[in-house]
Amino acid sequence: MGRVSNPTILRFSATQRVAHWVNALLFLALIVTAIPLYLGSLFGLVLERHVVELVHLWCGLALPVPLVVSMLGPWGAPMRADLARVSRWSHAEVEWLRHLGRSALRADKFNPGQKLNTVVVGATVLVLLATGAMLQWFSPFPVAWRAGATDVHDLFALAITVVIVAHVILALSHPRALAAMVRGRVSAAWARRYAPGWADELGLDEPSGATDRAGAEKVAST
Amino acid sequence: MAREGDEGRERDARVPVGRRVFLSLGALATLGVVLGARLQSAARGVLGSGLGGLFPFGDRFRLYSITGSYPAITPAAYRLEVSGLVERPQTLTLADLKAMPATRLVRTFQCVTGWSVPGVAWEGVALSAILARAGVRPGAAAVSFSSYDRADTESLTLDQARMSDVIVAYRMLGAPVTQEHGGPVRLYVAPMFGYKSHKWLSAIRVVERVEPGFWERNGYPVNGWLDGSTGPTDPRLGLA
Q1: pLDDT tens profile A67-114
Q2: Residues B168-194: what's their mean pLDDT?
Q3: Residue of chain B with shortest Cα separation from A115
Q4: Which of A43, A69, A149, B19 has the fewest CB atoms found within 10 Å of its own CB?
């Protein structure tokens, strides 16, 4: 439309993006090493089990690190703010999810699906960490609990893999949303379309209006 | 966060959905850990033993190799050395073992890390019979085992080795013991956790004292009794 400037808004801080991609790499390493560990019979053909086990163990122990580090200190403010958003839902959002996205919603910075994804992934990481630790250091636990921990670990790992595959498919089919996790910024037009509630908060006007009242977040540099 | 709140529009009432989902998943997982064994039995009923093998909560062997491959030994080339404190050292072929009286067992295979497979059928020669054939000399108190993988080792006290449900197995799950399960011949120590059931058994050495094996040197108990049981009785795990 011949706009001179193409205003962009910071959606994810550099800290959040680094945390996300480190997390993604750890998840990838965990899934790749989990396959031979789980499908034991395939195993002898691949690598020394001991090595695979060590990689899986250390990546698992490291998994919460990017999230925790990205929440701490002054650089953790955006992450803390986003996590607060993810935790509290409006009644409209609950309704939207209940109707599988078919009810009207003026979406927040994150839509209910994205919020649910975040919560489920976060909870699952903790469950996998706890049960994984039980499997590694099993001696204090009764055998029945070890069996339970094994099954819960497998089941949650399977579920989270499905969730992550869906997450990746959605990301690839929404390249501008994906770009926000790479470069951090989205266009004002994107925000108005996909996160209108957030655009309102930032004071983004309709396309014809001025766009530089967007508040501190907008001008933060990457 | 305050900054965003200040600039935001009027928010309607908030529901702590995030926290609820988070806590529900945590509670579900805790329940799964505590009731895992019972859920396993339930899943066994629903899925059956065929399909169940593919899914969590199913009955599935998990195969551990400490060397990165499974040793390949043909039945014809298989030899079991019996040496140490014995009157008549032996070199037994698979045919020699099969010519001896067979012991058949059906038991739950229980791994120390938690997983188990119920109703596994075993067939082999009682270890006590092999020891008797070789003739244990006075002063012997333990038995050490070697593996064709050239890495794994195991041991039992002589009393443990002579229990009726400790066998040198050549059949498992209704067929010759497969390569991945430790075939053609492995040990099966029914009253103990799976790591005592030494795979690819190559040699039995009668010795003066217990020599802790590979898994024991890596932190597992030398006496791997199932669930703290103290004798050659059926495991009382409530899993089967």
Answers
A1: 999 999 899 999 999 998 888 888 888 888 888 877 778 888 998 889
A2: 92
A3: B18
A4: B19
Is B6's Cβ below 8 Å from some Cβ in A?
no
Cβ contact B114–A150 (<8 Å)? yes
Q: Is B39 on the interface with A (CB under 8 A)?
A: yes
Q: Which residue has the tokens 């209910």?
A: A112
Taking CA atoms, B21 is separated from A98, A100, A119, A121, B112, in Å, by: 14, 17, 7, 11, 33
- Distance (Å, whole) CA B149 – CA B152: 7
The verdict on A134 touching B (C-beta cutoff 8 Å) is yes
**Which pTM was predicted?**
0.75
- CA A10 → CA A43, A108, A213, B8, B217, distances in Å? 45, 15, 14, 16, 54
CA-to-CA dists, residue B239 to A67, B60, B188, angstroms: 38, 14, 19
ipTM of the complex: 0.77
Contacting residues for A162 by C-beta, under 8 A, at least 6 apart: none
- Alpha carbon distance A182, A170 (integer Å): 15
Q: How many contacts, defined by CB atoms under 8 Å, are there between A and B?
A: 163
Alpha helices, DSSP H, located in chain A: 14-38, 40-43, 49-62, 64-71, 77-87, 91-98, 112-136, 143-173, 175-183, 188-194, 196-201, 216-219
Q: Name the residue among A17, A124, A130, A125 with its Cα closest to residue A70.
A: A17
Select from B21, B60, B193 the residue whose CB has the most chain A CBs within 10 Å, as the one to mutate to test that interface. Answer: B21
Kindly report the average pLDDT of chain B as a whole number: 81
